[in-house]
Amino acid sequence: MRTIAIGDIHGCLAALDGLIQEIKPESHDRLIFLGDYIDRGPDSKGVIDRLLELRKSCEAICLLGNHEIIFRSILGGLPAETWLGLGGQQTLTSYGGALERVPVSHWEFLYGLLPYYETEKEIYLHANYDACLPLSEQSEQMLFWEHLSKSVPQRHCSGKHVVVGHTPQPNFEIGYFGHLTCIDTCCFGGGWLTAIEVSTNKVWQVSQEGRVRHNWRIFRSLWKKFYALRNRSVASLESDAVSRSS
């Protein structure tokens, strides 16, 4: 059985279809989607339709993202003006221009999304976490809204590796932080939709138009070397500081 995490789709149905075609999931595989299925891209309705179809052929676990939180609020009666400017207009258009056309199955999907998912070795969630708190005590702000650009947390108290989306990564490359991996590579903005099997570090990437990226291994190697060098430099500076103070 493979466990594969998939980053922020944001309405990019062609990218999702291309990614699934590359992964070729089987019935015993587990796909973990990290949230933000809607807004900004051209076909949010189609993305949710596809996710519902996937649940029939493999284990598709769908987590809650901040854009789904907003959409649920809009469906519940919150004024839509702000949402429309955050990519909601594209979502509304995909539903034929009327919220009344959102089918019951999509309501059920949106309200059935999980806040996080945990395995024996990994934690999967949308945005960020407090390293000192168990998952059940994490705030909504951390799980769904806090960007890594504001704070990169230390290793989680469980000791498990954490996989997140939400924070678009520089140059559309996967963010490797040792104990944390970010796979929001900004598909809707000209980057890639990324999937990763954490246990093997196998990666699949597809553009918004459905074009498969075949040179990801080179970039992954360079990116991991960059973070390794950065972490080594930070450790060296900390060691020097301790030596000077003793």
Tag the structure with descriptive keywords.
single chain; 246 residues; alpha/beta; five-stranded mixed β-sheet; disordered C terminus
Short recap of the structure:
This protein is of the alpha/beta class and 246 residues long. It contains seven helices and ten strands.
Describe the structure.
- With 246 residues, the chain is of the alpha/beta class.
- The protein contains seven helices and ten strands.
- The protein has helices at residues 13-23, 44-54, 66-75, 81-94, 104-111, 140-145, 216-245; strands spanning 3-6, 30-33, 59-62, 116-118, 122-125, 161-164, 175-176, 180-182, 193-197, 202-206.
- The strands form two sheets. A five-stranded mixed β-sheet has the order 3-2-1-9-10, with helices on one face.
- A hairpin with a 4-residue loop joins strand 9 (193-197) and strand 10.
- It is globular and about 45 Å long.
- The chain starts with a strand and ends with a helix.
- Residues 233-246 have low confidence and may be disordered.
Number of helices: 7
Helices and strands, in order, run as EHEHEHHHEEHEEEEEH
**Average pLDDT rating:** 91
Helix content class: 25-40%
Residues in β-strands, percent: 15-25%
Morphology call: globular
CA-atom Rg in angstroms: 19 Å
The largest sheet has its strands arranged as 3-2-1-9-10
DSSP summary, beta strand count: 10
Which class do the helix and strand fractions yield? alpha/beta
Report the end-to-end length measured between terminal Cα atoms.
Answer: 51 Å
What oligomeric assembly is this protein in?
Answer: single chain
Which stretches are poorly predicted, pLDDT < 50 over at least 5 residues?
233-246
Major sheet summary line = 5 strands, mixed
